[in-house]
């Protein structure tokens, strides 16, 4: 026996979670619905590894001896730095560049997988989480961006979220770049800080964003975030674009009205701003022609997206329905996915322009929202039928195993009890905890007659609540039938079908 001092303490690392059967099945069900939409749009799956060379993940990673800020990194035996991917887009760019001559452009692909962030964990903020992406590489027209927005809308509706309970919000980084040029911001690092500050508008409000644009902001825990260092005049010019009442997304203006406001803005003299507005006009025209109104896809100047590699249209899908959290409190859930155009990411490897656009769904966040809305259960997976063990000799055990395999071969979930079989009551308690729908029982008498008993545990539980005395219970033997061994599979299927009908009637 190990010394207590030698025992390792079981502990889960901060920012990580264990996933259990219900969540895994709910996730699988949701991914299947999303995958069907992607396939309908003509996208094909691809899979990239979780580990990439660190320099392949992006020029925007910190330049340090050990590049582990924001990503998890380690050195290979050849002394090259490797990192766990922080998203699915940078690995796709590497894949496309490495296989450029074999890939048919435009390259339309989707993939799901875990990504990792070496960041401070907090409520709802994890170091490992799943994304589900779709991308088009090699399509320079903003019609590809418009299609991404329409596909995001279709995904939401495939998951049971109606127009009005979600909205795809669209902006253009060229609009934002033009504004920054107009206020005299040229430093790239400062631009990125400004973009990330504006991206927090929903979270911190105008006051908080102004602090991030200026000297910096201290959060409730006392942590300080350094600001962009803009002066008051620059800050005012920036925030005025997002404060204008007739382009506030909450007022739900038409896309044409929002773009008209852009064109009347003093920033419209800037050529970069003007190109961005023109592209937004094209997107608005395309989605409207396809029947997507502003209740589904809306131009919104407050959308930024925090990553540096976006070069054109950017978009987010936000849940606007009132959603209860785990405590039953009604909350605004916010963004569950987003993306945009990243024309420079593949070009880093190729040295030539390679246009690309795509979006990413935050699987865990969206799943939580769907569950709280009552839109997603774990599906139709039943607990297994339990084959009980009444006798431990090899002949009897062989029969029990044969029953189990016959059920499995017929497509019925089944398991043979593997615990201490000598206490039969424990087997039924185990079946109850597992939620088993049926128990298969064969003692010596049944075996001699070539018979088995099938106990309907769901109906039996219901009837037991109606029977008051043990005498009535023994006399009624509720929800239990005896059949010949040859009829086992057919009778089990019949009883499971009846339970399914009962669930439908009770729904």
Automatic annotation (TrEMBL):
Q: What class of enzyme is it?
A: ligase
The residues that cross the membrane are none
* Subcellular location, principal: cytoplasm
Identify the keywords attached in UniProt to this record, alphabetized.
Answer: Aminoacyl-tRNA synthetase, ATP-binding, Cytoplasm, Ligase, Nucleotide-binding, Protein biosynthesis
Positions of L-histidine binding: 87-89, 117, 131, 135, 305, 309-310
Q: Which domain of life is it from?
A: Bacteria
**Where is the Aminoacyl-transfer RNA synthetases class-II family profile domain positioned along the sequence?**
29-384
Alphabetical list of Pfam families matching this protein: HGTP_anticodon, tRNA-synt_His
A single Gene Ontology MF term assigned here is: histidine-tRNA ligase activity
Question: Does the record's keyword annotation contain ATP-binding?
Answer: yes
What does the UniProt entry say about where the protein is found? Answer: Cytoplasm
Biological processes annotated in GO = histidyl-tRNA aminoacylation
A Gene Ontology cellular component where this protein is annotated is: cytoplasm
InterPro entries the record matches: aa-tRNA-synth_II, aa-tRNA-synth_II/BPL/LPL, Anticodon-bd, Anticodon-bd_dom_sf, His-tRNA-ligase, HisRS-like_core, HisRS/HisZ, HisRS_anticodon
Subunit structure, briefly?
Homodimer.
Protein name from the UniProt record: Histidine--tRNA ligase
Q: What is the lineage of its organism?
A: Bacteria, Pseudomonadati, Pseudomonadota, Alphaproteobacteria, Hyphomicrobiales
């Amino acid at each position: 026996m190990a010394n207590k001092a030698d025992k390792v303490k079981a502990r889960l690392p901060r920012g990580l979670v264990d996933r259990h059967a219900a969540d895994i099945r709910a996730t699988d069900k949701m991914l299947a619905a999303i995958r069907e939409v992607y396939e309908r749009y003509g996208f094909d799956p691809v899979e990239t590894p979780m580990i990439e060379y660190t320099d392949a993940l992006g020029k925007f990673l910190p330049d340090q001896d050990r590049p582990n800020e924001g990503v998890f990194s380690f050195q290979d035996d050849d002394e090259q730095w490797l990192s766990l991917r922080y998203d699915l887009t940078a690995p796709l760019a590497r894949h496309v560049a490495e296989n450029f001559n074999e890939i048919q452009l435009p390259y339309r692909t989707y993939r799901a997988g875990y990504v990792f962030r070496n960041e401070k964990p907090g409520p709802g903020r994890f170091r490992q989480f799943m994304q589900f992406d779709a991308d088009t590489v090699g399509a320079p027209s903003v019609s590809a961006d418009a299609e991404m927005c329409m596909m995001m809308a279709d995904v939401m509706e495939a998951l049971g979220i109606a127009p009005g309970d979600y909205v795809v919000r669209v902006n253009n980084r060229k609009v934002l770049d033009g504004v920054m040029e107009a206020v005299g911001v040229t430093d790239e690092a400062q631009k990125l800080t400004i973009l990330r500050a504006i991206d927090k508008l929903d979270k911190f409000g105008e006051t908080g964003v102004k602090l991030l644009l200026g000297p910096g902001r201290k959060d409730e825990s006392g942590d300080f975030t350094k600001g962009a260092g803009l002066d008051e005049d620059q800050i005012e010019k920036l925030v005025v674009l997002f404060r204008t009442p007739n382009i506030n997304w909450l007022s739900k203006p038409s896309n044409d009205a929002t773009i008209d406001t852009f064109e009347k803005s003093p920033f419209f003299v800037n050529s970069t701003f003007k190109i961005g507005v023109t592209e937004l006009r094209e997107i608005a025209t395309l989605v409207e022609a396809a029947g997507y109104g502003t209740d589904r896809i809306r131009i919104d100047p407050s959308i930024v997206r925090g990553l540096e590699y976006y070069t054109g249209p950017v978009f987010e899908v936000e849940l606007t329905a009132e959603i209860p959290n785990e405590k039953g409190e009604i909350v605004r859930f916010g963004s569950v996915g987003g993306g945009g155009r990243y024309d420079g990411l593949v070009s880093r490897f190729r040295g030539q322009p390679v246009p690309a656009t795509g979006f990413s769904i935050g699987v865990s966040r969206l799943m939580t929202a769907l569950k709280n809305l009552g839109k997603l259960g774990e599906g139709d997976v039943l607990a297994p039928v339990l084959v009980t063990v009444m006798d431990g000799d090899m002949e009897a055990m062989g029969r029990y195993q044969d029953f189990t395999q016959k059920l499995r071969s017929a497509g019925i979930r089944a398991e043979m009890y593997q615990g201490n079989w000598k206490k039969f009551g424990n087997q039924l308690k185990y079946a109850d905890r597992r939620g088993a729908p049926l128990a298969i029982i064969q003692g010596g008498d049944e075996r001699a007659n070539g018979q088995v008993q099938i106990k309907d545990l769901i109906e039996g539980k219901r009837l037991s609540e109606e029977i008051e005395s043990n005498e009535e219970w023994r006399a009624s033997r509720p929800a239990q039938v005896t059949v010949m061994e040859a009829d086992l599979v057919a009778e089990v299927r019949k009883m499971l079908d009846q339970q399914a009908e009962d669930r439908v009637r009770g729904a």
